[in-house]
Amino acid sequence: MKIQEDARYAKSDEWARAEGGVATVGVSDYAQQKLGDVVFVGEISVGATVKAGEILTSVESVKAASDIYSPVSGKVVAVNHEVIAKPELINADPYGAGWLAKIELSAPEELNTLMSAPDYAEYRKE
Amino acid sequence: MTLYEKSVAGRSAFSFGFEEDLAGVEERVPEYAQAPMKQLPQVSELDLVRHFTSLASKNYGVDTGFYPLGSCTMKYNPKINERMAADPRLTGRHPLDSAADNQGILQMEFELKESLQEITGMDDFTLQPACGAHGELTGMLIIHAYMQDHDPKRTKVLIPDSAHGTNPASATMAGFQTVTIPSNERGSVDMDALDKLMDDTVAGIMLTNPNTVGLFEENSTQIAELVHARGGLLYYDGANLNALMGLVRPGDLGFDVVHLNLHKTFSTPHGGGGPGAAPVGVKKFLADYLPTPVVVYRDGAYVLDSDRPHTIGRMSAFYGNTAVLARAYVYIQMMGRDGLLAASHAAVINANYVKALLSPYYPPAYDRPVMHETVLSAKGYDKYGVTLLDIAKRLMDYGFHPPTIYFPHFPPYAEEVMMVEPTESESKETMDAFCDALIKISREAKENPELLLSAPHNTVVTRVNETYAARHLVTSHRDKQGT
């Protein structure tokens, strides 16, 4: 299981990496392994406001359809259209090309409630 | 090979006997109307018969063999249902005939309603909804309309994390926001979480009992008391009522609205896209909200009552899926009170029997007696390099339809679990053979995993590349030709 050192993690296995008030979010390597081959990523609307813990989008794999929860609160300012067109990017590169959205943080202090990389590694230790 | 690929220009399965009169038809019929005709495959009657007979022989259904698809309740559909539903006295009626002329159908629907009321402990029913999720939507629209009239600030609905995906979808379609309640380690609703979430913005809770992991919701009474005390309503998803007939009535447990899947519990055909039927029952204080018309008995006749001032409106045309309702009516009449009770007993005993035989090889997700279905785990087989999918594929080589796999979801992911629902229809011999096959596969996984990884071997279509199929959708023979 790969862990991105500079990201923070939700219990539901999404990651967020903040830079200047905007967080890039996606699902963790653990999540993509559990999901199996991802075959569909639902649309995400630029401009939508989301709250931490609320549904950001859903993904479908050959096993199941799963909701993806936003790890942070704020406004969606960018969406990775490439991952919607090529869902396999989530499996190939969950922390890089497989990112889902960029969210302008309305409550940056929420990042502190997410797990650090070492804590997440411990949390998902098999 | 599709029928289109078997087509030979000019070959025909029929003759009008007046072909010479058709000379010049191409000039008289506009081009746009001719196009679809020209695309039809041209085959002889024998080609056609062989094509469909061959397809039918490749199909697998409840009439072919064991079909333990958990959560779906693939029980036997008695043939007498079909015979009665095909009776010309039923099929020959038209829904636009007057109620006076359709007394037979209305009487059947009224008596079906009365039976369902007795079985569930509810006060009134609509027979209109045409499938399970449609029934959920009907029920949630009723709760929504009631809350709009009485307490419009209640805009949320609580749904356990183990619920079918249709529950949140139906509540959302009806205009609610949904909030997930976590399950506790026993697979039941977490009462502390419910206590925190159940406030004056919550319209109600949707519960399935037995729940989606096949367990009796042991806190059902406390949940009803808590939700009612705080002004909410209780919705019962009847997907699993086949475990409770004659044993427990949702109405007595405090539920205000229920839907039933006639295509599960009451032995009407299931799968293949329907048609289904999901009558919705309500307590008296909600009867005014039912979709209209409702069949009632008044002054010696069965009539369609549209005088429901708060009705949510129609949910389907005419009387709903009448021929499906007829099958359920026949089943209930045939089984009677004792028969339905015996069916539920058998469904529960069968599931626990399978669980007991398979537990040493596939440990149950929860260590407590189950109701009509059981969730078993294939965790640990990954050390032999095989997954649950491979086990399920191998089961097909033994002639069984695989159980439901990767469901229910233990959020947030589909774990290596399978859900087995034998239903009451199956004999001990059939269940023994099924369990033997799974036990053999367990051994094969250790000794010869390649056998599983390349399965199925004995089926018409062997292992398909599901990922490729999902990413490169071909939904028509035209798409196929195009690629």
Q: Enumerate the spans of chain B where pLDDT stays under 50 for 5 or more consecutive residues.
A: none
In DSSP terms (H or I, runs of 4 or more residues), the helix count of chain B works out at 17
> What's the N-to-C terminus distance of chain B?
17 Å
Largest sheet of chain A: 6 strands, antiparallel
Measured by DSSP, the beta-strand proportion of chain A falls in 25-35%
Mean pLDDT across all residues of chain B, rounded?
92
Shape of chain B: globular
- Alpha-beta classification of chain A: alpha+beta
Order of strands, widest sheet of chain A: 1-2-3-9-8-5
Quickly give the CATH architecture of chain A. Beta Barrel
**Largest inter-chain contact set:** A-B, 19 and 15 residues
Taken in chain order, the helices and strands of chain B follow as HHHHHHEHEHEHEHEHEEEEHEHEEHHHH
Shape of chain A: globular
The helix-and-strand class of chain B reads alpha/beta
Distance between the termini of chain A: 10 Å
Helix percent of chain B reads 25-40%
Number of E-state strands of chain A = 9
